[in-house]
Design a protein that fits this description.
321 residues, 16 helices, TIM Barrel, 8-stranded parallel beta sheet, single chain, two-stranded antiparallel sheet, 10 strands, 47% helix, alpha/beta
Length: 321
């Protein structure tokens, strides 16, 4: 394939180092829900990922961790898992120049450990940003206990990538339906509402948040969050520029959000410079999302913006890709 065709930047790509995957027994037990296959996930390597990227005209992929992440209530384990995953990710970036970046994983419930790992990941490993999950122990990201972590991320003007996870109170509400179907997008929406209504977004104006899977249900519910939240004087005071304006600061990706109704809602709500291409590889075959994007009536400029240009603006390091 000619170099000129290597155009996409995949903002939603999961690194699955084998040592990490073998240890994550909770995740292994949940393989049946992914549709990707246990052996396929356990056999992930950067080299195999590049083969798929080449097949789908993906120039560079930004790796991140997926649920269940590294936090299971054990501080020592979380620190070790974070460091191991981040160093594996940094090695993939070094070994394959121009093909990868990564959002380093940290565990916000462990404030001191998270702050130390943020420093190491950004200053030493040169991560492109920090990856978080939508809740930890059922606490959405707007919870005050996470404030010191967000203050540091804001000080560093960091890109923060947020991936959904199961909420302990809702994961089994619909027996037989994997949480990816309904609960993931709803937990994303809950954590966004938490961030904006507690004023965390207003207090951290220099963080650039990316929410995967089209921002969950935000495009559909943003007006409702604005209307209901705006009735509360405390919520309104936390967002002096308005709730809707705070929400429109956010970025989203197209992973599992590339159907025509989803794209229409995203493009109606988010600034068009805030929509990024994402595949969710290896949990999802990139071909499906790319086909849906190709079928949607986008201008040439908008297609280039989603595929590549918006990511370049957000992560200037990639301009050499």
């Amino acid at each position: 394939m000619a170099a000129m065709n290597y155009r996409r930047i995949d903002i939603h790509h999961h690194f699955l180092p084998r040592a990490y995957m073998v240890e994550e027994q909770e995740r292994i037990a949940d393989y049946k829900h992914t549709g990707a296959g246990k052996e396929k996930l356990l056999s992930w390597t950067p080299e195999l990922a590049i083969e798929v990227m080449d097949e789908h005209c993906i120039a560079c992929a930004i790796g991140s961790v997926s649920t269940p992440g590294v936090w299971f209530g054990d501080i020592r384990a979380a620190r070790r898992l974070s460091r191991d995953w981040n160093e594996c990710a940094a090695r993939a970036v070094r070994d394959h120049p121009g093909r990868f970046g990564f959002f380093a994983v940290v565990a916000p419930p462990d404030t001191q450990g998270a702050l130390k790992e943020i420093e190491y990941a950004l200053d030493v490993l040169k991560a492109d940003g920090i990856g978080l999950l939508s809740n930890y122990d059922g606490k959405a990201l707007g919870d005050p206990s996470f404030a010191p972590v967000f203050e540091e991320l804001n000080r560093r003007k960091c890109v923060v990538y947020v991936h959904p996870t199961m909420h302990p109170c809702t994961a089994t509400l619909i027996p037989g339906l994997a949480p990816q179907g309904v609960e993931f997008p709803l937990d994303t929406t809950r954590t966004i509402a938490s961030l904006v209504l507690t004023g965390a977004l207003a207090r951290c104006p220099d963080i650039k948040f990316i929410f995967s899977h089209g921002g969950g249900a935000l495009p559909f519910l943003a007006a409702r969050i604005d209307h209901v939240g705006g009735r509360d004087k405390g919520f309104a005071a936390n967002n002096p520029d308005g709730i809707e304006r705070a929400l429109k600061r956010l970025y989203c990706d197209t992973s599992s959000a590339s159907s025509a109704p989803q794209l229409a809602a995203m493009m109606k709500f988010f600034p068009r410079s805030h929509i990024l291409y994402g595949s969710d590889y290896p949990f999802v075959d990139p071909s499906h999302g790319i086909a849906e994007l190709d079928e949607y009536p986008l201008s040439v400029a908008m297609r280039a913006a989603i595929d590549r240009e918006n990511a370049l603006a957000l992560l200037p390091r990639l301009k050499g890709v």
